[in-house]
Amino acid sequence: MNKTLLHAVLLALIVVAPFAFPDFRTQLATLWLMIIVALTWDMTGGQMGYNSLGNIFFYGTGMYVAAVVCIAMAHNVAEYTDASGGGIFKFTDAQYFGGLIIGVIAAGLFCSITAFIIGYVTFGLRGPYFAIGTLGVAIAAGELVSNWDWVGGGQGIALPVYPYDLDQGKLFFYALFAITGIGLFAFLSWFYQTRFGAAINAIRDDEEKAEAMGIHTLRYKLTTWSIAAFFVGVAGGISAFQLIHFEPLETAYQTINLGIFMVVCVLLGGKGTLWGPVIGAIMFHVFKEVTWNYFLGWQWVALGALIVVTVVYFQDGVMGYLQYRYPAWFGITVEQDKPAESSK
Amino acid sequence: MDQILVNLQLLAQFPVVNIKIILDGIMIGALFALAAYGLALVWGVMNVKNLAQGDFVIAGGYVAWYLAGLGLHPLLGVPVAFVLLWVIGWVCYKLVISRVIERDLFTSLLATFGLAIMLAQIMNLLFGSDTQSVDLDMDTLYFFDGFVDIPIAKLIGVLMAAALATGVILFMKNSRMGQAIRATAQDARAARVLGIDTEKVYAFTFSLNAAICGAAGAIIVMVWVIQPFYGITHSVRAFVIVTAAGLGNLPGVIAAGLGIGALEQYGAMIFGIGYQQAIAVMLLLLVLVFRLVQQRRKRQVLQ
């Protein structure tokens, strides 16, 4: 009962937020993006124990797939990118919204399939090699796309602008992100309670033993990563239309920005918990915006420092801290003579 | 695609071009090998994978560039960068690295990534985001009717890199500190039991690594370009080299460095200069997959 009330209040907040703070609609949409990517990173990093540094690959790929699909439905892609402009080529409303919906779904599916293929190769890599390998995939993709003229090369792609009122457009993208985010959260809260969720936790705790217990680990790892990639791809696809113009290195495959931010969000909020990534994403986003506004020029240094401090001193995150201090809130029973193991 | 074919044809028609490419690759690869050498040291001794490696290189480059801007001789930048980066490396060790040594590897990876972002941004704020290089203002030697050219500046760079590498190897072999470092790399607990101050060894190793990178960067700025955000590709390259050579194989690091330098030059020649950064990363992926296959085969043999 209490939980239902909490969820209802949160849902109301999500609906009211863009109307209560109309100037911050784009900010709130970005916050949703952070929540989505943090949640998806936690699927593999927190729940399955495979720390990827390359999830940004699916974000960038999602952007490009969505954009190319939308353009290809109305125009010749090579001519479009050659002229480098959404202003020159006209899109009707049906072409815009149809392209958006099909593009975003195609982005999710494409990323899912790519994740399956990449995962098939990289899941043999353990620990830090997996992180370096996936980071390599993301960096390589950025470099290759920036040399690929068909999709605009280093110049990037300019997509058509939202056809109606600009303010309404901001609300539209907020809604798209929010629906994706809520959908993902609802899916995950169910997913982690299934046998499947238990299996990926077993892989995190001890992969060899899980294998010995009869869990086909590779199948579970691939499925989890593909699902995560689907949602990152969808988020990337929506971002592409929201940003209107994007280019490969700074926006799409921003390895050192969003690619690292999502990891830090999860660490800040608490790895391997359902609410941790959400809380972490909110904290991180607020910190980022505050430094952007008040420490202009030094914002990156401050962010780097935050990453170092989080990683070195606060790796269990807010949820880990709370679970350690108030185990009863989470239904964790602690034997009196043994201290809790959840937090070091 | 047509351009690639034209380039391949060019390679086939003028075999001397191959000599030029290989020489160029060795000259730049020698500098890659230096940065990778430091990484192999830190990785082997304290089991920390340092992603800020490339940013130390770039920082060293900016030291030399700054000194050259003041009117000093660019070659002076190499020792100055060595000393300054030693200090920076020591500070980084005390603030960050010393706290992640005992932790899992992903922690060290992420913490050094944070460090890398900070360093890159501080350089961006201090020196601007343009690409910079230092002109040594020296002649170029020509061979084979001008097909193969070796700028004397590059030659000096290679010689300095070789001297530095030799110095470090001799130091590791003969000095007491070098012995202590090797002992710690083999078994840190046993070294501690025998009275080696491993904490001091760690601090020394990391500072030495940063200093080597700094000197390499000071040489790189004379033969190539630097930019605050080029650090990550230098880091990735160092990873490729160490992973390809295998951990603990220090002569292999130098060989792999030279090889990757040459491969990159070939890639740039065949696919175009824009792909040069991508080639290092693709090589990393290839090397990782190759090692994976090797590992699997080994496991099968054991079973």
Report on this structure.
The complex is a heterodimer of chains A (344) and B (303). Chain A is mainly α and 344 residues long. Helices cover 71% and strands 1% of the residues of chain A. Chain A has helices at 2-20, 25-45, 56-74, 77-83, 93-122, 128-145, 166-191, 195-205, 207-212, 217-243, 248-252, 258-269, 276-294, 299-313, 317-325, and strands at 157-158, 245-246. Chain A has a two-stranded antiparallel ribbon with strand order 1-2. Chain B has 303 residues and is mainly alpha-helical. In chain B, 77% of the residues lie in helices and 3% in strands. Chain B has helices spanning 2-13, 16-46, 53-69, 77-95, 105-127, 152-174, 176-186, 188-193, 198-223, 231-245, 250-271, 276-302, and strands at residues 140-143, 148-151. A two-stranded antiparallel ribbon of chain B has the order 1-2. The relative contact order of chain B is 0.20. Chains A and B meet through helix 6, helix 12 and helix 14 of A and helix 5, helix 10 and helix 12 of B.
Describe the structure concisely:
Chain A has helices at residues 2-20, 25-45, 56-74, 77-83, 93-122, 128-145, 166-191, 195-205, 207-212, 217-243, 248-252, 258-269, 276-294, 299-313, 317-325; strands spanning 157-158, 245-246.
Keywords:
heterodimer, A: 344 residues, 71% helix, B: 303 residues, mainly alpha, two-stranded antiparallel sheet, 12 helices
SSE series of chain A:
HHHHHHEHHHHEHHHHH
Q: Give the neighbour order of strands across the main sheet of chain B.
A: 1-2
Largest interface summary: A-B, 41 and 42 residues
Strand content of chain B: under 5%
Please give the radius of gyration of chain A in angstroms.
21 Å
* Largest beta-sheet characterization of chain B: 2 strands, antiparallel
The secondary structure category of chain A is mainly alpha
Distance between the termini of chain B: 46 Å
- Overall radius of gyration of chain B: 20 Å
The largest sheet of chain A, given as strand count, sense and whether it forms a barrel, is: 2 strands, antiparallel
Taken from the alpha-carbon principal axes, the silhouette of chain B is: globular
Helix fraction of chain B, binned, reads over 70%
Residues in helix, % of chain A: over 70%
> How many β strands of chain B by DSSP?
2
Distance between the ends of chain A = 33 Å
